[in-house]
Amino acid sequence: MAYLYETHMHTCTGSACGVSTGSEHVRYYKDIGYTGIIITDHFFHGNTAVDRTLPWEKRIDLFCSGYEEALEEGQKVGLDVFFGWEQHFNGDEYLVYGLDKAYMKAHPEMEFWTRAEQLAAVHEAGGCVIQAHPFRLRQYMSRIRIGARFADGIEAANAGNRAVEDARALRMGWEQGLVMTAGSDNHHSPSDRGTFGVALDERLTCIGDYVKLILNKGHIGLYVPEERFAITPEIIAQGEPDQAYVLDAEEKDVRTDRNWLFDA
Known about the structure:
With 264 residues, the chain is of the alpha/beta class. It has seven helices and twelve strands. α1 runs parallel beside α2. The protein is globular. The chain starts with a strand and ends in an 8-residue tail after the last strand. The mean pLDDT is 93.
């Protein structure tokens, strides 16, 4: 038996781009057979729904309210609900798991962490970091920035991506031996683009169980359509991305001419 979890999703309470409430998400995922979800609203450098002028503790209360609503509904209907968030830097974004509301309230400096500071602090607190959709390029981004050195793994499949973006991420993950996850990046339930996620051998009792799986490189199945990673003529026709860059140890862009679909 596989236990299905959504690892990347947004509520309208915490994310300005969110459409559904935490309760609506919970009912949808329960209906389609998931075991649990992880709410990962956009944090304060990203597309947050929280007024940044408010006092820190008030901001954290509002930020966590979408998760808390989902948790309450999940306890009613029998769906596991866990907490995380998505932090934005310079177009590259990271999913943080394993820290809680109390930690956030006690650490207002986290709003200004660099990528390296984020990874170190999250590790010290017993959490982990996954780079979200590393090959995605959108209007709000000047270029693709691959920051795998500042994460414990990558999101190899995201339902909001083009298939070619996920194919590149999967290839990089295989070659570099990275932990890989999948998520829907869902803003609206029901989702009109399908749902991705991870399939686990054992049910999670807490978010710490998921963190341990990632840090220990345990088995994480990618719950995605079978054809998602197929390199078809249609995917090839989507073309190469704008120039990709890898972030070095000082978080500076280093250009790479690598074609992630075809180069050896």
